[in-house]
């Protein structure tokens, strides 16, 4: 796929400017969330208005450069690695390259800011705080996180364009209706496989920032678990199904990340017969169901959210949680449940079922032997 098909490259200049402004505001908000010490912000904001204006202008320039870097890297890989031919390899290598480039870019910025400070006495707020080392880490985390989100946006857009192209080509070449539907279904499945919740990445990075300062050993374990989760999503994003055994290995790393953030507000009970382990599910099905339970319920130390995962004698997997309603009716698109149902429609004649009895919420997921469709 050519570079002209990228989300960012296809935007007109004024739309790209809107994107850069949006990323600037989001990154600043994210940075504030990563620095809970309000005292430092109170020290900073009495500065003259023109100083704050300079800071925002610098951020606009920096994010414009980050967007252009993302575009350049994507165009480079488009010439050498087509998404359609090497999805997993392309996604993995491009992610690593982009992270390394962003790290180098941040190191360059640090030297530039230091030079400005030594030469003219100007200290950007990015080096204003007493704990400069931790502040630099937070900047790198913020920039890297949003860069990864840009990759996900580009990848999803590429598959959407492939879907449209396949549709147009099928009509032009007079391909049979059955072949046309198959091509469209495969492209649609790829799009669904890439719907990873960006909030999970943001929350994980925020928790990691806290751990780096509090407990280095626990921080190391957290990084290892996050690495397993992200690597699993990269490697298996192109697969239609995966063994339940592999999905559960991924789930243990994912649960470690959740329990650190939620503490005793959430508990898990996993009891699955070994005979079911060779059966298959769409990748990240369990993660999506757990995310749905978290979004719809409170997680209190006095009344924890209890999630049970177990099988039955009908070759099905059940994910069950107690219902602890939120105080306010928070609107939810239930993207995770919709995603799972749509993926099963493309893979099997059997679909997930939902059962609610007032006290518990159950999602019953068919296990596949992949002779379904």
From TrEMBL:
**Transmembrane stretches, by residue range?**
17-36, 48-71, 91-116
Provide GO CC annotations from the record: membrane
Classification via InterPro entries: Bact_2-comp_sensor_kinase, Sig_transdc_His_kin_internal
Keywords, ordered alphabetically: Kinase, Membrane, Transferase, Transmembrane, Transmembrane helix
Q: Does the keyword NAD apply?
A: no
Q: Does the keyword Chloroplast apply?
A: no
Molecular function (Gene Ontology), one example: phosphorelay sensor kinase activity
What this protein is called in its record is Histidine kinase
All copies of the Signal transduction histidine kinase internal region domain together span 188-263
């Amino acid at each position: 796929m050519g570079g002209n098909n990228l989300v960012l490259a296809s935007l007109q200049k004024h739309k790209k400017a809107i994107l850069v402004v949006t990323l600037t505001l989001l990154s600043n908000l994210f940075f504030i969330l990563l620095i809970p010490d309000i005292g430092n912000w109170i020290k900073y904001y009495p500065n003259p208005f023109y100083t704050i204006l300079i800071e925002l202008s610098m951020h606009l320039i920096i994010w414009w450069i980050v967007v252009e870097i993302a575009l350049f890297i994507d165009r480079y890989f488009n010439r050498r690695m087509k998404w359609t031919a090497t999805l997993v390899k392309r996604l993995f290598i491009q992610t690593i390259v982009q992270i390394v480039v962003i790290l180098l870019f941040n190191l360059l910025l640090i030297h530039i800011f230091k030079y400005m400070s030594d030469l003219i006495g100007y200290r950007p707020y990015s080096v204003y705080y007493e704990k400069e080392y931790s502040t630099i880490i937070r900047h790198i985390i913020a920039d890297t996180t949003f860069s990864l989100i840009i990759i996900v946006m580009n990848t999803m857009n590429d598959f959407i364009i492939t879907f449209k192209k396949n549709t147009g080509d099928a009509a032009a070449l007079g391909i049979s209706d059955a072949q046309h539907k198959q091509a469209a279904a495969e492209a649609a499945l790829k799009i669904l496989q890439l719907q990873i919740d960006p909030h999970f990445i943001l929350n994980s990075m925020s928790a990691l920032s806290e751990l780096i300062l509090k407990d280095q050993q626990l921080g190391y374990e957290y990084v290892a678990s996050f690495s397993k989760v992200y690597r699993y999503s990269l490697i298996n994003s192109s697969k239609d199904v995966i063994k339940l055994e592999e999905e559960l290995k991924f789930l243990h790393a994912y649960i470690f990340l959740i329990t650190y953030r939620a503490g005793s507000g959430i508990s898990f009970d996993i009891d699955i017969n070994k005979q079911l382990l060779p059966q298959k599910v769409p990748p990240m099905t369990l993660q999506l169901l757990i995310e749905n339970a978290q979004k719809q319920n409170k997680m209190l130390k006095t009344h924890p959210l209890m999630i049970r995962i177990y099988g039955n004698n009908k070759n099905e997997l059940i994910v069950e949680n107690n219902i602890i309603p939120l105080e306010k009716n928070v609107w939810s698109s239930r993207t995770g449940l919709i995603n799972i149902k749509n993926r099963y429609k493309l893979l099997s004649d059997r679909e997930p079922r939902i059962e609610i009895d007032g006290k518990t919420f159950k999602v019953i997921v068919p296990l596949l032997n992949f002779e379904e469709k």
